[in-house]
Write a structure and sequence with these properties.
Elements lengths: L26 H20 L14 H5 L11 H12 L21 H13 L10 H17 L7 E5 L2 H14 L6 H4 L7 E6 L4 H9 L7 E4 L9 H13 L3 E8 L11 H11 L2 E5 L24 E4 L1 H4 L7 E5 L2 H8 L30 H35 L4 E3 L7 E6 L6 H17 L6 E5 L2 E7 L7 H19 L1
Parallel strand pairs: 2-3, 2-4, 4-5, 5-6
Antiparallel strand pairs: 1-7, 6-7, 8-9, 9-11, 10-11
The structure holds pyridoxal-5'-phosphate (PLP).
The site of pyridoxal-5'-phosphate has 15 residues, from α6.
Length: 496
């Protein structure tokens, strides 16, 4: 299969180098490399499945291949691009490969890539409204568009972060700030009672990290048990809150998940929301993976109760065809977020126009990339219909694979298939439980060593689980059939 290639001849002879001492690359040279690169990207995307998904490199290989120092004299761009292709690309795991089905499958879609290219070109920095008016307003508009696509009621303030981890950290800080009597922003945490954050045993580690970074303390992040479908048990949450109150601790926040990392379970948000309302706790929903499924009409139920959350995070860079990174944090109480983070130094003061939103006041970073552009391109290019059609296909492919696994006597599903992720293991009856972990690790290695697919693993109820996540726009029914065939063939080899 053909793979893209940069033209190997340098554009200018080396003696042209001194001209580069001042200023940027000359326009004709830039035009040439832009066209070459655009062509290369188009080929790369067209043949996204041509390279092995997993590179065959060892730790340190890339560093060894690179010079110890940056070059003294400028180098020809053609040589740099060839080195990218020669040294860097073969040492990358191919996240845009249709066989990439580990963790959560993603797509850097073509319109998203175009948006990212233009973001780099305009290099806008959304510190204040006036440093980037269109960046600021487009960010608020696309966040609102996405909110409407999710079919959540009313309007909600939404802003873009790099990742869900950052978004959840901001939500936890806002929850902390909402405890008016403690005045933590000015007094800090010393003297405050231990604040308690609740989440499920299956929540993502970013919730723990938010607790650690916000000064809550890891010991004060309570892991609430889950039911047989890996969903938080609301009665256990309520009981844990009562215990902490009796011990003079201060419950303040619950993080529920829509689409947990391992099993993709959906916590019972309506019941959790009722507890939060009664107990006056901040409710944050981590819908980083599963949230976008609600765009599909028959999947709307996954966000039930989320209209009552104080904050919610959704990651278009996971399952909404947007190149990394782009995570949207919604907050029903942006005044609290602003109270937590606003600090305007003199050199940034000036615009008193109340219409002007300065996004730096709602979060930790000052500088702000123009991430909204790529999401705008994605939402406009695919439209609601295109998004629904693609998500529905991923859901269907996952269901088809799950049915095949369920119907095979030597395999078992280990979690309900709620979205487009299938958790399963190889478990032939003649093999004892104690040997199954080793067997499934070996199977995972063999499948991944094929270079055609990448799967990942998790542990559910103490059982090593293989995970197939379908979410790449270029994954076809044929890929899923070939994967299932490969899994069966490799499992047979292991038991011969
Ligand atoms: N929340 C869930 C449920 C996840 O599965 C993940 C990562 O996979 C995250 C949060 C963290 O996402 P990010 O990489 O955007 O920080």
């Amino acid at each position: 299969m053909s793979t893209p290639k940069f033209v190997p001849e340098p554009l200018a002879p080396p003696e042209a180098a001194p001209d580069r001492a001042l200023g940027d690359m000359p326009a004709p040279e830039f035009r040439r490399w832009t066209l070459e690169t655009a062509d290369w990207i188009a080929d790369f995307i067209e043949h996204a499945g041509a390279r092995p998904v997993l590179p065959s490199v060892k730790p340190g290989d890339v560093m060894k291949a690179l010079p110890e120092k940056a070059p003294e004299r400028g180098e020809d761009m053609g040589v740099v691009l060839i080195d990218f292709e020669r040294l860097i690309l073969p040492a990358l795991t191919q996240w845009n490969h249709p066989g990439f089905m580990g963790y959560f499958a993603t797509t850097a879609s073509a319109p998203g890539i175009l948006g990212e290219m233009l973001t780099a070109a305009v290099n806008s920095n959304g510190i204040l409204w006036q440093t980037a008016p269109a960046l600021t307003e487009l960010e608020l508009v696309v966040a609102d568009w996405l909110w409407q696509l999710l079919r959540l009621p009313d309007q909600c303030f939404g802003m873009i972060h790099d990742t869900a981890s950052t978004a959840t950290f901001h939500a936890v800080v806002a929850a902390r700030e909402s405890l008016d009597d403690l005045a933590i922003r000015s007094r800090g945490m010393s003297g405050a009672p231990p604040l308690i954050l609740y989440t499920s045993e299956q929540a993502h580690s970013s919730v723990d990290k938010a607790g650690i970074a916000a000064g809550i303390g890891h010991d004060n992040v309570r892991k609430i048990p889950v039911d047989d479908q890996f969903r938080m048990k609301p009665e256990a949450l309520d009981a844990a809150i009562s215990t902490d109150l009796l011990a003079q601790r201060r419950p303040f926040c619950v993080v529920a998940t829509v689409g947990t990392t391992a099993a993709t379970a959906v916590d019972p948000v309506p019941k959790i929301a009722e507890i939060c309302r009664r107990r006056r706790l901040w409710l944050h929903v981590d819908a980083a993976y599963g949230g976008v499924a609600a765009i599909v009409p028959e999947m709307g139920h996954v966000l039930a109760g989320c209209d009552q959350a104080d904050s919610l995070v959704v990651n278009p860079h996971k399952w909404l065809f947007t190149p990394l990174d782009l995570s949207v944090l919604y907050c029903r109480r942006p005044d609290i977020l602003r109270r937590a983070f606003s600090l305007v130094p003199d050199y940034l003061s000036g615009t008193d126009d109340r219409q002007a939103v300065n996004l730096m006041e709602y979060g930790l970073p000052l500088g702000r990339r123009f991430r909204a552009l790529k999401l705008w391109f994605v939402l406009r290019y695919f439209g609601r219909e295109g998004i629904i059609a693609n998500l529905r296909e991923h859901l269907r492919l996952a269901r088809t694979l799950a049915d095949a696994i369920h119907n095979h006597p030597d395999f078992e599903l280990l979690a309900p298939v709620v979205f487009s992720t299938v958790c399963f293991r190889f478990c032939p009856t003649r093999i004892s439980e104690s040997q199954l972990e080793r067997l499934n690790r070996a199977l995972l290695e063999k499948v991944n060593a094929s270079g055609k697919f990448l799967l990942s693993h998790a542990t559910l109820n103490g059982k090593l689980t293989l995970r197939v996540s379908i979410g790449n726009l270029r994954t076809t029914p044929g890929h899923v059939e070939r994967l299932w065939e490969l899994i069966r063939n490799k499992s047979r080899e292991l038991t011969l």
